From TrEMBL:
This is 3-hydroxyacyl-CoA dehydrogenase. PROSITE patterns: ENOYL_COA_HYDRATASE (PS00166). Pathway: Lipid metabolism; fatty acid beta-oxidation. GO terms for biological process: fatty acid beta-oxidation. Residues 476-569, 604-690 form the 3-hydroxyacyl-CoA dehydrogenase C-terminal domain. GO terms for molecular function: (3S)-3-hydroxyacyl-CoA dehydrogenase (NAD+) activity; enoyl-CoA hydratase activity; isomerase activity; NAD+ binding. In the N-terminal section; belongs to the enoyl-CoA hydratase/isomerase family. Belongs to the enoyl-CoA hydratase/isomerase family. The lineage of its organism: Bacteria, Pseudomonadati, Pseudomonadota, Gammaproteobacteria, Pseudomonadales. Residues 296-472 form the 3-hydroxyacyl-CoA dehydrogenase NAD binding domain. It is found in: Peroxisome. The keyword ATP-binding does not apply. It catalyses: a (3S)-3-hydroxyacyl-CoA + NAD(+) = a 3-oxoacyl-CoA + NADH + H(+). Pfam families: 3HCDH, 3HCDH_N, ECH_1. It comes from Stutzerimonas degradans. Keywords: Fatty acid metabolism, Isomerase, Lipid degradation, Lipid metabolism, Lyase, Multifunctional enzyme, NAD, Oxidoreductase, Peroxisome.
């Protein structure tokens, strides 16, 4: 036996207990241990039944994701599961916590399965760019039917134990200790004289498989055309409906290996670990305890403020929403109600849950009402003088220890903190619009933000179900600072000869959720105008700027809200149409720069925009504004519509090869000027043949103990 797998003989029952914290991933030691335990149980004449349980918080959470991309080590999981299924003595698995991926596949290989009532089971491999590669695509349809199998395998969402019972995925539910339940069930099997019952010997139920498969195929091809794994998931389920188990498993294996070797798998696994890494803050002492946050407040009842208040209410945290006057307050509260009502209409929220959440939002107009709250998030107009007023008042009324947070998207957090006598309690919580929907939260660490406040901000992010990423103070933090470079280059492309359709189209083909011009039309061109003005004032005079956005603003073409911007919109319709008034604007902008308009190719468009992100990302990394390159990736994946299957801009650059990226950046520098000055870190890593992922900054912008 190995350390992680223990075999006990309790009368006629062999109890196999796996203990591989934190999530009982099925790494090589577990696979070896399971196979040994099973062979020993099979060989022991006294053993008449086998019970399998996991120690700790959960049943197996799946294959060990860290092993993907490494040389394979025997035994492979399908081999272990085949041995379990072939066992001549009945085997029962008792599931608690989550049985995911390979974990559920092990359970499906067992002859009987019971699950604790609060357990979840699922095949989430597709989210990692994979398909269930240890029999899941063959055994699940045999138990649950094609429709349910497609839903679970192509969608990747786990289901609760009760639903699993309904679909024959488990045989019975239990409460309490999995070990006791497994032993009791195994004993019952013996008492009732029940032998092995092999899922693989069943045939797939139902006669409409071909139709279901064709429909799902068409839907996936339309909805996620760039994704590699979902169509292969469907092909594997299709094999289950046509082939005997052994051949189906072979087909599954082929398809699994195609996914395993695809760049999309590498990118999605990178995204998985990036999310887990982000919560780790290098210089935060392990003993740091977050503060208790029982109540919160939000200043400002605009779209952002209301969205933030809803985030707290959705997480069950009572929140005060402050507006300056009664009328504005009522408008804000109505906005909160309207937002929830949309979810009710869509069926994702019940009427009673909406009322429960809205009841957690208390409208106030007086700062005195904030005296006792634990955390305040300011979401007022982006103007330093306005922020000053707000923070001075908060400093005057809030209790000691209250956290004062700003939702600023670009202003200097250190300056804001200096408006208070407690800069150590000030932190940035930069939500993204719509705040109640977008997962990203940039947690801005000021020069004097205390460890406890930073830890609390990260904990709050988790509680609000956000992807919280620590960033340092600089203009635009990580996301918007990079976006500025991206947007500017997109606009330079318009001056060189592209149309918004071409630029947006090329970037959408790359995988971006939306093109930059459609995004600008959506948020309003006037939004960026103040930022552009500020940038011009602070950036070196020899840098030239594109002028298309300013020309459109001057002509009152502000995007969707005026019905015309980079595109034209019919009333009540958000479909971007060609704006005939744009061509003269583009021509004038090109003429002013002395540029002859040319046809640009898609690759050039994509490189110009993406490498602008990457070059700036490299500067951000070197300055310690982001802790690690995967944090930058996470910001782009969760806040800017970057395709998860590309892993984020920095991972993408790593996968292209930093030497190639640098060569293009240098060319652009020679041709387009100093915006393209290569980041020193990019030059260094390219010269050393290294990647961003493998590099750690030596310092970070936070200072305070
Ligand atoms: C698969 O099974 C393929 C098979 O079909 C075919 C094989 C042939 N491996 O998320 P947390 C680590 S594909 C390695 O913070 P939670 C994680 O990195 C797999 N490590 O906890 C973290 O480490 P650290 C299909 C793993 O309680 C720690 O565990 N399965 C794995 O919020 C805690 O994780 C999945 O896709 C793993 N499989 O959530 C399930 N899983 O502390 C993936 C976790 O060093 N996992 N870690 O940062 C999850 O969805 C969540 O982790 C889970 C727990 C719900 C289990």
């Amino acid at each position: 036996m190995t350390d992680v797998v223990r075999l006990e003989r309790l009368g006629a029952i062999a109890l196999v207990t796996v203990n591989n914290p934190p999530v009982n991933a099925l790494g090589v030691a577990v696979r070896q241990g399971l196979l040994h335990a099973l062979r020993a149980a099979e060989a022991d004449a006294e053993v008449r039944a086998v019970a399998l349980v996991c120690a700790g918080n959960t049943f197996f959470a799946g294959a060990d994701i860290k092993e993907f991309g490494q040389p394979p080590q025997a035994p492979a999981l399908p081999e272990v599961i085949a041995a379990i299924e072939a066992c001549t003595k009945p085997c029962v698995a008792a599931i608690h916590g989550t049985a995911l991926g390979g974990g559920l596949e092990v359970a499906l290989g067992c002859h009987y399965r019971i699950a604790r009532a609060d357990a979840k089971v699922g095949l989430p491999e597709v989210k990692l760019g994979l398909l269930p590669g240890a029999g899941g695509t063959q055994r699940l349809p045999r138990l649950a039917g094609v429709a349910k199998a497609l839903e679970m395998i192509v969608g990747g969402q786990p289901i609760g134990a009760a639903e699993a019972l309904e679909h024959r995925i488990v045989d019975e539910l239990f409460d309490g200790d999995p070990r006791a339940a497994a032993l009791a069930y195994a004993q019952r099997l013996l008492d009732e004289g029940r032998g092995p019952r092999r899922t693989g010997e069943l045939s797939v139920p139902g006669t409409d498989s071909a139709e279901l498969i064709a429909a799902r195929h068409a839907e996936v091809a339309k909805r996620t055309p760039g994704l590699f794994a979902p169509l292969r998931c469907i092909a594997a389920v299709d094999a289950a409906t046509r082939l005997p188990l052994a051949e189906g498993l072979e087909r599954e294996r082929q398809l699994f290996l195609e996914c395993l070797h695809s760049p999309q798998r590498a990118a999605l696994v990178h995204a998985f670990f990036a999310e887990r890494q982000a919560s780790k803050i290098a210089d935060l002492p392990a003993a740091t305890r977050p503060r208790e946050i029982a109540t919160a407040a939000v200043i400002g009842g605009g779209t952002m403020g209301v969205g933030i208040a809803l985030c707290f209410a959705n997480a069950g945290v009572p929140v005060k929403l402050l507006e300056v006057g009664e009328e504005a307050l009522q408008r804000a509260l109505q906005r909160a109600r309207d937002t929830c009502a949309v979810s009710v209409r869509r069926g994702s929220l019940s009427e009673s849950e909406m009322e429960r959440r809205l009841a957690l939002i208390a409208g106030v107009t007086d700062y005195a009402a904030l005296a006792e709250v634990d955390l305040v998030v300011e979401a007022v107009f982006e103007d330093m003088a306005v922020k000053q007023q707000v923070f001075e008042r908060l400093d005057a009324v809030c209790k000691p220890g209250a956290i004062l947070a700003s939702n600023t998207s670009s202003l200097d957090l250190n300056q804001i903190a200096a408006f208070t006598r407690r800069p150590e309690d000030v932190v940035g919580l930069h939500f993204f619009s719509p705040a109640n929907v977008m997962r990203l939260l940039e947690v801005v660490r000021g020069a004097r933000t205390s460890h406890a406040v930073l830890a609390t901000a990260m904990a709050i992010g988790k509680r609000l179900k956000k992807v919280a990423v620590v960033v340092g103070v600089c203009d635009g933090f990580v996301g918007n600072r990079m976006l500025f470079q991206y947007g500017r280059e997109a606009e330079f492309l318009l001056e060189e000869g592209a149309t918004p359709q071409q630029v947006d189209g090329a970037l959408r083909t790359f995988g971006m959720a939306m093109g930059p011009f459609a995004v600008r039309d959506l948020s309003g061109l006037d939004i960026g105008q103040a930022i552009r003005k500020r940038q011009r004032a602070i950036l070196p005079a020899h840098l030239t700027f594109p002028t298309v956005a300013d020309r459109l603003c001057a002509a009152g073409m502000l995007g969707q809200k005026t019905g015309v911007g980079y595109y034209r919109y019919e009333p009540g319709n958000r479909t971007p149409l060609e704006n005939p008034a744009l061509a003269p604007v583009l021509e004038a902008a090109s003429r002013e720069k002395g540029l002859e308009r040319q046809t640009l190719d898609e690759r050039y468009i994509v490189e110009r925009c993406l490498y602008a992100l990457v070059n700036e990302g490299a500067k951000i990394l070197e300055e310690g504004i982001a802790q690690r390159s995967s944090d930058i990736d996470l910001i782009y994946l969760n806040g800017y519509g970057f395709p998860a299957w590309r892993g984020g801009p920095m991972f993408y650059a790593d996968s292209v090869g930093l030497d190639k990226v640098l060569a293009t950046v240098k060319e652009l520098h020679a041709r387009c000027g100093d915006w393209w000055k290569p980041a020193p870190l990019l030059e260094k890593l390219a010269a050393e043949g290294r990647t961003f992922s493998g590099w750690q900054p030596a310092h970070h912008s936070g200072e305070q103990a």
